[in-house]
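Obj: model holo form, ligand = magnesium ion.
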Amino acid sequence: MAKAMKVSKRPAAMKKVSMKKVKSKVAMRSKTPVPAGLGNFKIRIGIIHGKVFDPIKVGTHDRNYPEHLKIKNNTGPNADGWGGQFMADVSTGLKIMRLHPDVFHVDFMTMEQVTEKRLSRNHLTFNFWGDMSIALMNEKPKLAKRLQKIQMNPNFRHHPVWDYYEWILHKSRYMKACERAGIPMIDTIHLEKGFNARDVLKKIVAKGWDKFFVKPAYMSFFGAGVINGKTQDFIDNIEPLLQYEKENKHQKEFLVQPYMLKPNGEVFDEIRNFFCDGQWAYSVYTDGVDYEGFWEQPEGQLKEACKNLAIRTMEEVKKVHKWEGKRINSLLNRIDIGIIPDKSRKLGYRIFVNEIEPQMTTWLGRYCPFVIQDRMAEVCVKQAHEMLKRSLAARRKMPSPQKVRQLLDVLEQRLKES
Ligand SMILES: Nc1ncnc2c1ncn2[C@@H]1O[C@H](COP(=O)(O)OP(=O)(O)OP(=O)(O)O)[C@@H](O)[C@H]1O
Ligand SMILES: [Mg+2]
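Output (holo structure tokens):
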């Protein structure tokens, strides 16, 4: 699963967004009042945060951004990701409270702070960074176990739900679904029972690939655990592939692919398509080799073609993204479309789906034409309303269900008014 990790030392130029405009929009919202008698009761939304590499646009941060949630000293050569102190995940939570301060309380927690007790106190918890795969990546197996137990149990009302999460994290699952739907992907040998070097090499030779690329297919990120090279070199000396087999005994699932290079010999580039609330929202070019190579994809045929391919792919995501057993739009997805210049095609490019990412991915709000945390907060409010309605109907145990019902009625009115 791709998350951060093109590390840029220099913050890119960012357009300032007028805070005046933002404020006046909020002030104009006509508000159905919360009934007297609810006291200080609020719907509690947990937000698991930790996107220390995903800053928002300069000037768009909440004026009361809590000190303890700021990422301090995140500048200079040691900065995480693109630097900065105000991140997209926390900013979304703050915006939820700004939109409806009398309805929502947001409980910010890092993944290390996640406990069953804490999630039970919340009505919903949105995980923006800090699921079991990230705990495993950070070499915290105990924490990963604790998170897995919570993620698997719908009584903790943790989003994303387990089945969808598993579908995304097992790359072969979604790749096969996309292949069945006729969506262009990289030709792939799916290994699901471990890596056997001799067997794999035979399969690569049978495919006729002169260069290949192997990557783990479950809970992998940042290109971890990959091996690639010329097929002939491995035929001449299989030793490095046997070594890879040894080092990856703990993994069961792998993808074996041709090495996808541009005519100039560099790795393919991507246009990353973001979906908020199931709708295509923006796309960001990401260079395959240049760590500074990020920008909003400019208008044009290539953007349109990638957008259309991503929308087709999103249809597959929508089939599996559910809450209480019924489909609901996801909060955010990123669909990475690989692009390779190809003069033989009308578009001038070969395009294919490389990856589907859940909301824990990097949102790249710096290259988004609107303020990402504002949009995401509205999506979270809308979805929280629907999710809680369903969870109440499913009789999930949660704090003060009757009061939650009353606040959901208020929210429903407000959503109609806005
Ligand atoms: N078949 C391939 N040929 C050449 N390069 C590849 C291939 N597959 C992946 N890569 C390179 O490895 C990078 C990581 O692979 P991918 O995006 O599929 O998985 P990931 O492990 O989730 O990584 P990341 O978190 O970096 O996106 C890609 O961005 C690309 O540069
Ligand atoms: Mg990737």
